[in-house]
Amino acid sequence: MSVRLPDLGLKVKIVVALSVAVLAILAAFVSYEMERFRIERMSELRATAQNLANLYSGAVASSVWEFDKDNTRSQLEALKVVEGFQRAVIWETNGPEFVAVSSRIADGPHVEGKAKILVNGKEIAWIMVRLSRNVVVTAEKRHLEQILYTVAALAVALLTSLFAALHFLTRPLDRMTNLMQRFATGQLGGQIPFVARNDEVGRMAQALAVFRDHAIERRNAELALHRRSEELTALNKDLLKARDAAESANRIKSEFLASMSHEIRTPMNGIVGMVHVLMSTPLQQDQREKLSTLASAASTLLSILNDILDISKIEAGRLELDVAPFLPRRMLDDMMALWRPSALNKGLTFKSQVDPDIPAVMIGDANRIGQIVANYLGNAIKFTESGSVAVYLSGQPKGDGSYRLRVSVTDSGIGIASDTIPRLFQKFSQADNSTTRKFGGTGLGLAICRELAQLMGGEVGVDSTPGKGSTFWVAVDCGMADSTVLPLPEAGSRSRLLALPGERRLRLLVVEDNQVNQVVICSMLRSAGHECDIAKDGRDAITAVQKHAYDGVLMDIQMPVIDGVEATQRIRKLDEKYLRLPIIALTANAMAGDEEHYLGLGMNDYVPKPIDPDRLTLALRRSIATDAAPIRRADLRMAEEPGAEDDEDLKQLLGSL
After folding, report:
1. DSSP result, 191-208
2. How far apart are CA 22 and CA 36, in angstroms?
3. pLDDT tens sequence across 444-476
4. Which of 78, 226, 307, 567 meets the CB 3.0–4.6 Å disulfide criterion with 444?
């Protein structure tokens, strides 16, 4: 049979390609089969080792109990007849090795089985049986030989059949190939041979004809697509510009909030602290009233700042819930006690009602629920000139084992028009501009309530009639807790740490460049009996920690010469003992992510300014000592006979103002 050279070349190429494919498939099969075989044999070997350990744990129990080592060893000698046996050992419980038996193949890869030796239900020893993995290796070799013989025969048969079949397919392929090459270059005219044939070649020719028709259609479509692509490219450029502009605006907003937070919180810390200091000194009545007005204004400003930061954290997805057991009735009582003086000062009737079926203990974030209720109560008292404010606590169990807790606040105030209700829970929105002018506020409180409720899987709403009052409500999903569960989180939590007793006095280094904040922070610490030294920047702090032994360092962040972050990193590199020195970030940077950022830079804790006494106490106890003396708000006053150091600091500060 005559064979042309070009046909022979094509056959060789196809045979080689198919051969590689067949061999690859067979190789994959061999690899899979060997891995499956190995896993099965290893499982059997491990099971054998464990079964032997279980079997002999009972067999030698009496000998071990009687402390008969010879009898025990003779029983273990029987294991040497087990294929692959390496070693068997018995240990006394919490004691030394009792008996060990080894074979000639005591070393090498192995599997182990362990079991307890019990007498009358009491553990007296452990037994370990070790079998060599060489048993599996030998079995793998035998299995591999069998598979290779089978695969080789199958490969030869397949390749021979393929080579014979190729001869009848290659002759018409030349013309088909030349025609397809023409089509590939865009020459779609001409006759297609073999279209009339009814075999596979004819069907290939018919498919090629369809391909040519589709190619003509595709070429026309590509021209239209190219034009559309140019239009989309131009549109994408416009969209990218819009996206970059939006991202830039969002970045500028975040940078602005971070800058304003720091710039406002730094003087706010001094204002709030100095008000506490001055109010504790002998004052005339009009002076005390003016200071009370100043304290109220500072509290309002801080509340506005906190609202803005809460919105920022929510938008950044960095606000986390503190889910723990809590008492819903106690939560409501705390809110009532907090707002009762404000209601009574306006002559309002202030009451609450609790559904008797409310569970005693629930699981949820009581602080965030209380924040929503506090916002409702503040608004109700603010917008009610006469009448009453009432709080209702109710709920109902859900089918999934949770409880739908509902709190509603009803007042007899000015009410809200129906067309303004949809805007109430939006950011920076109030009923109308006159509300802002008369009562003040940023319009963030209700927006935060909505976001918090959604984080807890709940919702908020309002029912109101102008001139007759309003009812604001929140419903959140809480977990059900056993009534015996105490509503106290784990020992390291905020509530638990603040509740712990403690009188330990600490020696602390306060690193702060602002003179007002130096006096405020030291007044807080000294009110609890703690000693404190002052460093005006990071460089002085590095020198001070090397001269004196401090229990901890309160580190401001933004300072001249060396800032708090760099000072912390340099202190950590001084010596191994400084790696354990507690350093607490005391900063006006309070944006979303700031706490995580400073903790990641090597600081132990974080307290934002203005400084909350509970937050500072929590940081001291969490980072330095759980029995540290707490800083109580009632103690934030100067002593009747202030020490020379406190008195000199205050005189120097007041003289510079």
Report:
1. --TTTT--SHHHHHHHHH
2. 21
3. 678 888 888 888 889 998 988 888 889 999 999
4. 307
Show Cβ contacts of residue 603 under 8 Å, excluding neighbours closer than 6 positions. Answer: 555, 568, 583, 584, 585
Give the pLDDT confidence of 302-321 residue by residue, as tens digits: 666 666 666 666 665 566 77
How long is the chain?
A: 657
Q: How far is CA 77 from the centre of its chain?
A: 56
**DSSP β-bridge partners for residue 123:** 118
Please state whether 367 falls in left (phi above 0), alpha (psi between -120 and 50) or beta.
alpha
Our measurement of the distance from residue 342's CA atom to the centroid of its chain's CA atoms, rounded to an integer in Å, reads 39
What is the helix (H) or strand (E) element at residue 409, kind and residue range?
Answer: strand 402-411
Q: What count of other Cβ atoms lies within 10 Å of the Cβ of residue 138? A: 14
Q: What's the 3-state SS for 266-320? A: HHHHHHHHHHHHHHCCCCCHHHHHHHHHHHHHHHHHHHHHHHHHHHHHHHHCCCC
Name the nearest CA neighbour of 602 among 617, 580, 618.
Answer: 580
List the one residue out of 76, 80, 105, 107 whose CA is nearest residue 89.
Answer: 76
CA dihedral (224, 227, 231, 237) in degrees, to 10, reads: 120
Write out the DSSP string of 145-204.
Answer: HHHHHHHHHHHHHHHHHHHHHHTTTSTTHHHHHHHHHHHHTT---S--TTTT--SHHHHH
In this structure, are residues 439 and 382 in contact, taking their beta carbons and an 8 Å threshold?
yes
**Model confidence over 530-584: pLDDT tens digits?**
999 999 999 999 999 999 999 999 999 888 899 999 999 999 999 888 999 999 9
Any residues with CB less than 8 A from the CB of 330 and at least 6 apart, and which?
Answer: 487
Check the CA dihedral 139-140-141-142 and report its sign: positive
Residues 6+ apart with CB under 8 A from 180: 208
Show Cβ contacts of residue 59 under 8 Å, excluding neighbours closer than 6 positions: 75
What is d(CA 470, CA 416) in angstroms, rounded to the nearest whole number? 7
Q: Which residue shows structure tokens 């809480």?
A: 478
Strand partners, 607: 586
CB 136 within 8 A of CB 45: yes
* pLDDT at site 64: 86
- Strand blocks (E) in 466-505: 469-480
Q: Which of 337, 433, 420, 346 is nearest to 381 (CA)?
A: 346
Q: Which pTM value belongs to this model?
A: 0.42
Q: Are 614 and 581 in contact (CB under 8 A)?
A: no
Q: Which amino acid makes up residue 617?
A: T
- How far is residue 242's CA from residue 248's CA, in Å, rounded to a whole number? 10
* Beta-strand runs (E) in 59-164: 85-92, 97-102, 110-119, 122-132
Provide the sign of the torsion angle of the four alpha carbons 347, 296, 646, 578, taken in this order: positive
* Closest listed residue to residue 323, CA positions, set 460, 493, 451, 473: 493
Which residue from 473, 225, 226, 234 is spatially nearest to 369, judged by alpha carbons? 473
Q: What is the mean pLDDT of the chain?
A: 79
DSSP character for 427? T
Question: pLDDT of 179-191, one tens digit each?
Answer: 777 777 777 776 7
Instruction: Give me the helix-helix angle, 200-279 and 173-184, nearest 10°.
Output: 40
